[in-house]
């Protein structure tokens, strides 16, 4: 063994160091508080410790009618003053009414004043000037906090939209308005609030049923192990039962078509052709024609003949595929530690995802507050221009555009770092894809090395290394990091292109250019096929790397041509393996799912008293079913890697050896018998 693809290994290490540096720079410039805390019109965080807003955790909008929908309120800046408050309004009030009664009702003014700009306490200021300068809101309405923002407290009464049981309110500008003016905001808010209520109930269900979910997943793990062990004895039986079942079903279909064809004989109109009656929306019309059943019978007969001929001519290859499946079960039985290696891959991928997500958040929150002119007049030429809130009042903008304000817009900047944040986000995504693919490649190469050591052991299990999995992992890291990184790099480039194409497709979805949509669709399809092909090539290249220790390109070339020389065996083995493993996943997930259904619906009398009281019994049920399928997929992915490795070893064994004493076969006795050899060469003592 020697180090392979050293240049790519060096580049990979340098990229990892650069990725760490990018994370550090993002951590220095970013501030996740911009995501956690809402920001007022002055760029200050609501609820931030050691600031004047420490006890003011909620964002209040002066005129929520200017905000079209909750999506605008959450994601964009609403063109109205926004303040941090300690609580949302709980009553209707207008500045006009409060100003008129502040002398003999000071409590109303003191309550209303907490929703004005900090420090404003001049109820004598004219209403026009207050509204122009937006010192106070023109009105307040009963609201409740959601996503740390004050939203109107909508409800329905007898099918009528209300706010605090009222259908009208004063807008503070001399008009009485209907609460239906807030309908757009109301619909979105109520939907989100309903989703929040459902989310809380789901969280409660998880909190009281998590241990039963874990028990269900443990049962799924034991069933998966049991299925893999039983495949050694039942692989052939399961496959042939399925094949003969399909043949029987098709045979019944042929008989039924003939019966219908014969039964319609002599019935008026049944001898018409499909061409005679033309196109009919009611499919039952065609079932009254003898020609239809004759066509069905011919098609089913053709399918039946094809299946039988394939079984006749491919019977030996099918026997080899089943023997390899049994051999894979036997290999896993000798190297049981491989079943738990997917946990290592899962942890590596979880680390990559966490680092990518944190870096993306810090990059997204990098920047200084950017302020823009918010003008009430649509024709103001200064609208949406950047401004400085400290010097804004000294400019002539307020004279040319009465009511205009310099308010916080977003976080950004004009420095070199801020201009290239989008490029950094792309780099973050690309390196993330590279690292994830490397983690998967490392797992595949490690498992392939362990199972190859089983196949090439002349006396099984005596010649199997003591710690085959750990030895294979060490070889992959020490010698082949560059090769694994090279394969992962190629795949990451294709995946990044697919992500960009999906982004472009999303942005151009509303375009009317048919050619552009057609071109994007073709590109997406081509790169999807390319990704699937590369995953297939990479997987087999990693197996060859684990066996022979050559570089990636050489291993990929040798694996590809080896598979092409055995293309029929590859197709048969792939389909037989896919069927049996899919059947296993369905059996495990379905079996555990049925058990969980009877348990959570209290249909098992023995455990009826142990079932927790749930809001939605389908929450733990779906979790158990999906989790069971993923657990089975994790175990069976090891089994699939085992079968693929043994198959390549088997093909290499056939090409390099002839069964003589000088070149003995390393395959098992069952495979040797299927090939028609008389006997294995005598094994060494």
UniProtKB/TrEMBL annotation:
Subcellular location: Cell membrane
Pfam families named in the record: Choline_transpo
Family, per entry: Belongs to the CTL (choline transporter-like) family.
Catalysed conversion reaction: choline(out) + n H(+)(in) = choline(in) + n H(+)(out)
Keywords: Antiport, Cell membrane, Glycoprotein, Membrane, Transmembrane, Transmembrane helix, Transport
Reported function: Choline transporter.
Molecular function via GO: antiporter activity
Keyword Cytoplasm found: no
Protein name: Choline transporter-like protein
Membrane-topology annotation of the record: Multi-pass membrane protein
TM helices/strands, residue ranges: 7-28, 210-230, 237-255, 293-314, 334-358, 431-458, 479-501, 579-600, 621-641
Organism encoding this protein: Panurus biarmicus
One GO cellular component, as annotated: plasma membrane
């Amino acid at each position: 063994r020697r180090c392979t693809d050293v240049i790519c290994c060096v580049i990979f290490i340098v990229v990892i160091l650069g990725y760490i540096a990018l994370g550090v720079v993002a951590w220095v410039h970013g501030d996740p508080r911009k995501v956690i805390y809402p920001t007022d019109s002055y760029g200050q965080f609501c609820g931030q410790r050691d600031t004047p807003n420490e006890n003011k955790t909620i964002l209040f909008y002066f005129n929520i009618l200017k905000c079209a929908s909750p999506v605008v309120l959450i994601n964009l800046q609403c063109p109205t003053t926004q303040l941090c408050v300690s609580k949302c309004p709980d009553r209707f009030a207008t500045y006009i009414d409060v100003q008129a009664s502040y002398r003999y009702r000071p409590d109303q003014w003191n309550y209303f004043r907490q929703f004005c700009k900090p420090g404003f306490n001049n109820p004598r200021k004219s209403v026009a000037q207050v509204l122009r300068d937006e010192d106070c809101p023109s009105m307040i309405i009963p609201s409740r906090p959601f996503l740390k923002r004050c939203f109107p407290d909508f409800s329905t009464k007898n099918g009528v939209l209300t706010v605090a049981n009222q259908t009208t309110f004063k807008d503070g500008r001399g008009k009485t308005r209907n609460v239906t003016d807030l309908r757009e905001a109301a619909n979105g808010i109520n939907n989100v609030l309903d989703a929040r209520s459902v989310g809380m109930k789901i969280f409660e269900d998880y909190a009281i049923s998590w241990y039963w979910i874990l028990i269900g997943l443990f049962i799924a793990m034991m069933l998966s192990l049991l299925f893999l062990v039983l495949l050694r004895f039942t692989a052939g039986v399961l496959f042939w039962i399925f094949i003969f079942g399909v043949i029987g079903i098709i045979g019944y279909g042929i008989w039924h078509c003939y019966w219908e064809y014969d039964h319609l004989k002599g019935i008026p109109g049944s001898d018409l052709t499909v061409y005679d009656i033309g196109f009919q929306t009611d499919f039952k019309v065609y079932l009254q024609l003898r020609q239809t059943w004759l066509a069905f019978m011919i098609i089913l007969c053709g399918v039946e003949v094809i299946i039988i001929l394939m079984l006749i001519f491919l019977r030996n290859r099918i026997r080899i595929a089943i023997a390899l499946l049994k051999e894979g079960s036997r290999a896993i039985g000798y190297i049981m530690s491989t079943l738990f290696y997917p946990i290592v891959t899962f942890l590596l991928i979880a680390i990559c995802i966490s680092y990518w997500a944190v870096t993306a958040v810090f990059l997204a929150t990098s920047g200084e507050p950017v302020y823009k002119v918010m003008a009430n007049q649509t024709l103001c030429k200064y609208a949406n221009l950047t401004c400085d809130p400290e010097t804004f009042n000294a400019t002539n903008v307020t004279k040319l555009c009465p009511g205009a304000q310099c308010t916080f817009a977003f976080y950004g900047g004009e420095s070199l770092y801020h201009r290239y944040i989008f490029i950094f986000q792309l780099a973050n995504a690309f390196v993330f894809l590279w690292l994830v693919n490397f983690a998967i490649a490392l797992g595949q190469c490690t498992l392939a090395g362990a199972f190859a050591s089983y196949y090439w052991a002349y006396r099984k299990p005596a010649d199997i290394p003591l710690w085959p999995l750990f030895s294979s992992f060490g070889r992959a890291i020490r010698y082949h990091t560059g090769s694994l990184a090279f394969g992962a790099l190629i795949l990451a480039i294709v995946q990044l292109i697919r992500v960009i194409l999906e982004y472009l497709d999303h942005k151009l979805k509303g375009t009317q250019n048919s050619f552009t949509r057609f071109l994007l669709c073709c590109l997406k399809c081509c790169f999807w096929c390319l990704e699937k092909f590369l995953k297939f090539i990479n997987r087999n290249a990693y197996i060859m790397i684990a066996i022979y220790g050559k570089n990636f390109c050489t291993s990929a070339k040798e694996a590809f041509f080896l598979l092409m020389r055995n293309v029929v065996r590859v197709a048969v083995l792939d389909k037989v393996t896919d069927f049996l493993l899919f059947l296993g996943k369905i059996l495990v997930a379905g079996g555990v799912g049925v058990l969980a259904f009877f348990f959570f619906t209290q249909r098992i009398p023995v455990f009826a008293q142990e079932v927790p009281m749930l809001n939605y019994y389908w929450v733990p049920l779906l979790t158990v079913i999906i989790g069971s399928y993923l657990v089975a997929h994790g175990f069976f992915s090891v089994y699939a890697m085992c079968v693929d490795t043994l198959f390549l070893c088997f093909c290499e064994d056939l090409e390099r050896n002839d069964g003589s004493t000088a070149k003995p076969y390393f395959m098992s006795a069952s495979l040797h018998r299927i090939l028609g050899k008389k006997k294995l060469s005598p094994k060494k003592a």
